[in-house]
Amino acid sequence: MWCSVVYCLWFAVAITRASNLENVRRILNATEVTVPTFDVGNKNNQFQILDDINGISFYEYLGQQNFTTDANVTDVQRLIYYSNETFMSLSDSIAAEAQIQGIIPLGDDSFILSGQGMINNVSLASQLVFNMTDLSITKIFDTPLRSIEGVTVDGPLVYFMGNFTFNNNTGAIMWDSRDRSINLLPFHGFGPYANINSILKLNDDNILFAGHFSTVWNSSLLLQSNVSEESVRNTTSLLLNPSVPLQYSQWKTNGELDSSQLICPDPSKDSWSVSATTGDFTCELPFQITPSKIRIYNSPDKDSQVSLFRFLTYPAGSIMNLTYLDPLSGNMTSCDAFCPLYSKTVLQSQWDNTAEANTVAIINNNSTNIQWTPNYQEFALVSPVAATSLEFNALASYGNNLGLAGFQIYQASFSAFGNNSFNTPNCNNNDKDSNNTFTSSSLSPNNWTSVGEYLTVGYTPNENPVPKVTYKIDIQHSGEYSINVFTPGCSADNTCSTRGIVNYTLFDTVTNKMLATSLIYQNNDEIKYDTLYSGQLNSSCEITMTYYSGLYASNTVTTIVADRVDLNIISMDLSHRTEVSKLALNGLFQYQISNFTNDSIPMKIANTSLNQFALNNFEPSVSLRAFPLSNSSILLSGTEGNMFSINLNTDLSVQNSTRLISTENFTTFQPYSNGLVMLDGQGNVSLFKDNFKNLNTTMDGSLATDVANITLNGDELLVFNNGYIYNVTSQQQTRSNSSIFNLTVSSAGANSINDTIFLGKVVQWQYAIANQSAQVNADFNDGIEQMSLPSNTVPSRGIFLNDDSTGYFYKESNKSKLYITNSNSTSGLEWYGEPETVVYDKNDTLLMVGYYNDNTFSSTLSLTNLTSFDVIKEENLNVGSSISSLLYFAKNDTLLVAGDFEPSNGNCSDLCLYNYKSGQWDSLANNSVSGSVAALQLYQNDTILVLGNLTLPQANDVNMAFVNLSNNHVGSLIMKKDAPVNLHSMIVSNSRIVAWNDTVLFSFDGNSWTRVSVPGTDSSATSISSVQFISMEGTDDALLLLGEFRHSEFGDIKSIVYNFRDWIPYLLYVDGPRQGTGHLFMNRDISLHNIAQIPLLNSTRVLTNQSFASSTSSSVSSTSTTLPKVSTTHSKPGRRIVDRGFVVLIGLALALATVSVMGVAGVLLAYIFRDNVGDSYQTLNPRMDENAMVNTLPPEKLKNAT
């Protein structure tokens, strides 16, 4: 169970102070970005993104881009922080195999992370503390703690629970966050094979443990102090010899052997078998024992049952003399080399006809009991000897093969090992051999190291903690015992020079009386034992071994070893015995803290009504889980759907209970604000508070088998692992993942101040756009909305018609159609292909479209009257041609057509004048501009800007040129060498020109050109698709860009603003299935830049290589042609001095003189300097590169939006 009562009910806790959001922002440099507000120059101050969009968001903080990518990538998950509608990634991508099973708040500034795998190169199995003040991760345990079922936090104390053993504590351990100390629970955890599933804090003094266990590790705490005497009446229930743990033994055989099943047998299955009538196996022990008896389970197969055997021990290498109770005669009988085993048929027959009391015998001064049952026979060693290896020889069979179901060894002493692994019994069950008598040990929190069956630790005197080992031996029969303590030899591990002295002390755990104490020197060369005590013992005992001193210098490291303690049976008085009653547990234990801190309370563990409830209402060996339902009620769940709702009194006694009836066997439970959500792993899900409410969580045939609880944007969500999401707040059962909202949560935790951490993936967009284009308010406070267009309509471009009407081109099948907004319907117009360029003259309602014809594989020029919707003219160009741009000269009924084409009836190509009334094609400026043209624009009414792969009379390799309509002047503006990749698009305003390719902008501000690189660390992922002028502080003082921008600081961005100084991230959005390149449509009148207001000149005179204004300078080069500021000269009013005719003559004379002088001067200059035309164009010097842009706008300088 991955929460405490405090955590599970965190929803009700009032937020008393701000979350750690600002601190996390600071550390991650996740600065808030001020979303720009601007003017787009139309009446609604809105613009549109023509694209197939699913979801869109304003860019509001650095790192936001991490949560706008595809969350369905199966091998990517992150540790994510969330607060106040802000997501931030706390880690790099975490591999899918890493599992954080628990995220539990620890105070207001930390979380416990528990699980498996690695995070930030730290093992989750070490149980981690994630500190919110500095985002550091620290380990709690140096040694990984695996098989954790849950973590419960109680103030500064953290309880870890599960199926593990740590420092000889099983099932649970406690960590104090104040001093970072690992503390053993006062009852030292639970019994062997215990598994703790839940820990609940009932109140400040009581904690409830639920799981699979039947005792606590220090079982003496379960002993009742009242002593009663009674005669022993049933000798078959006596357990005088403990079984030897054989899990760590090495086995050899000439047949097939399953050692785990052999030592913990199922009588109905063979665990050793040989396809012959003779066979053997050997067992190499990890430590020396003195066996007292063996128990043999014959094969269940009649053809494999052993009939004769012998038993040998090593190093003696002797066949053992055995004695047994003969099932046929009922007498004690001996054997050695040929010992009989009866068939199971014979054993069953004799069992049916023999009194149970006659199937057991007590021998060896009441220290050994031997018996037989239908499943096994026992044989006692007549003269036990020490052994390190055992051998079983099968000499004959009742059939053709050999087999045994089980083989167990017992000894006359109880051994408690310092290495607690060797204290675990062979079987994890509730039989008397496994649980009624066992040994255990617990360790001080030093760095103990296992060396086989013993432990060692290096200790520097006067440091804390002092090494200590506590051995527990639980005995139920009073008698004469001796206690030997073993010390490994120092020569084996070369520690003779560092060994020290330890103190052993023996206590009676019932009376707490010290029975013996002794100082033991540990510098012996070989293994030895010392007798600590010999005498009467009436109850369980506890032996402590504590560091006493070193043998050498007081400040040197002393080596302390802890091996085993043997309690040897001398004799037992079985006619009368003193028996101490023992409290039983069945998967539920109420731990009262004050009982262990108050020395005046003799009974540390009380027989509470909660403990008794589990014994009375659940089957033995149940595995329980406990969950809070309210402050005074809990839910207990066992196996096979057995569940109870329990109401508690103020003293925590059971007031009443209700058995909950459910047809499902729920295995997963997740607390949430209104109760529990339960899953059975088969797709059945129920919510429970006072009754069950079933949820149908099936998603696309996938069943939910796990769930996490998280609150986002004020909505409490139950997130299932199949993609289904239940909104607890709105009680909606239909929310599922999509490209707009995609949430995967494997675990989550939240504290009381609104910090949430979860492991998973998330995609969340501010605005949902259902596969449509988006309409964006330039004032971001007014948000973004979906455009009102027919369903499945994604326009490729828009055209401003007037303040009330807009046209949108969209494709349907292989045709393009026009949708007009004022009629909310299509116009009926169709084009066989995609429009490449569109111009609209609102005075004549003339729509001019250049498009690529899919049917003829050529471009077509079409003119349509939008009043009558009549097609006025269509002109098909040659196959493979393209039209890139149009300008319209209304006074001449002529279009300037640009692209890559050659009319069949004209004297031009690529850039031609077309009179649509006469159908005549003609050249512009006597074909002085040639080459493939990408774009045209009108600048300041009388200048045509031409962009493409161009050639002029005076220069080759031109990227941008101009033609002055007033005098047909032609000149170059940008050479190819200035732009390594040709510029292919441009826009103009009254004061600026901007041209671009995929990654570079060229900007002219009326005085000089500037080259600007678009932000992007990966040129292959950066691409400009659309640019438009916007106004932020003045006219046309900023640009809005759309495209794909990948930046090291901003991440992947769809739209960005450039104010000719700084780059500001603006929009993020996700494309739908019909995604295109995306187009910015400002829905404003741009006719000044594509419809000329002056007529074309009739003259074909062309002036080249000249500037329009000699006063205009350029920053590109001192000799390149610059775009002018157009000026008009006026004559001064006054008295006429010279008649008009004379003026003309004088002007002509002056002109001739001027031309002569200039000609002579030009020849001289040309001769002297000999400049080539091509060399006069210098490379543009970039004014700002990407690094400069980042430095200009560091993320921390971005302001918060207000």
From TrEMBL:
GO annotations of cellular component type: cellular bud neck; cellular bud scar; plasma membrane of growing cell tip
Biological processes, Gene Ontology terms: axial cellular bud site selection; bipolar cellular bud site selection; intracellular protein localization
Domain Rax2-like second: 244-404
Gene: KNAG0G02000
Segments of this protein annotated with the region Disordered: 1111-1132
Tree of life domain: Eukaryota
Signal peptide: 1-18
Name of the protein described by the UniProt record: Bud site selection protein RAX2
Record-linked Gene3D superfamilies: Kelch-type beta propeller (2.120.10.80)
Species per Swiss-Prot/TrEMBL record: Huiozyma naganishii (strain ATCC MYA-139 / BCRC 22969 / CBS 8797 / KCTC 17520 / NBRC 10181 / NCYC 3082 / Yp74L-3)
Residue ranges of every copy of the Rax2-like C-terminal domain listed in the record: 861-1088
Start-end of Low complexity biased regions: 1111-1129
